[in-house]
Amino acid sequence: MADVAKARRTFVAHESPRAAKLDGLPLATSWQRIIGFYIDFLLAVLLWFPTAFIWHRYFFHEHKVQLNWDFHETGNVLVILLYWGLFNYFGNGQTPGKWMTRTRAVSLTSERMGAWQSVERALGYGAALLEGGLGFLQFFWDRNRMCAQDRLAETIVVDLRKSAQAVAKAASE
Q1: CB-side neighbour CA atoms (13 Å) of 9
Q2: What is the pLDDT of residues 81-97, one digit of tens each?
Q3: At residue 74, does pLDDT exceed 90?
Q4: One-letter-per-residue 3-state SS of the chain
Q5: Do the Cβ atoms of 113 and 107 come closer than 8 Å?
Q6: Domain limits at 55?
Q7: Total domains, the chain
């Protein structure tokens, strides 16, 4: 009985077979991540505009619709959460912006991005902004190039270009 109680108090390392499987994957470059983020942000705003207009015009019956993009409005935040959350989930970590820049967010805990993990990643963008942008700058000093959204959702962003894959494969041999 004493052995069981003692075992419960010991720390267990979080290294897993999944982490070993991801070891050596090429990480996305800063320009890939920045361009991918801005493409996704632009697409989210382009989806938000007609949705917000229809909502205000036909549900609130406003005749003079004024749309403002800011993160204090619930509708704007909801669009961002839905955009990144749904695309990460159904695209298994690949949003349209990530697809265009040939990158993918990969889960450190499972083969596929889960629904909650996708929402956590979307919320992580807000956390990175709330830190005054420092959450995004963490990319430059973190060994695994993880930003706030990556840490929160336990993901990394990998480079899917064939040239990066070939370099990583040659380096591991």
Answers
A1: 5
A2: 999 999 999 999 999 99
A3: no
A4: CHHHHHHHCCCCCCCCHHHHHHCCCCECCHHHHHHHHHHHHHHHHHHHHHHHHHHHHHHCCCCCCCCCCCCCCHHHHHHHHHHHHHHHHHCCCCCHHHHHCCEEEEECCCCCCCHHHHHHHHHHHHHHHHCCCHHHHHHHCCCCCCCHHHHHHCEEEEECCHHHHHHHHHHHC
A5: yes
A6: 26-172
A7: 1
Angle at 120 between CA 124 and CA 78, to 5 degrees: 80
- pTM of the complete model: 0.80
Q: Give the lowest-confidence range in 7-11, 115-119, 123-127, 145-149.
A: 7-11
Report d(CA 137, CA 107) in Å as an integer: 21
Residue 19 belongs to a domain: no
- The verdict on residue 16 lying in a domain is no
Residues 148 and 152: their CA atoms lie apart, in Å, by 6
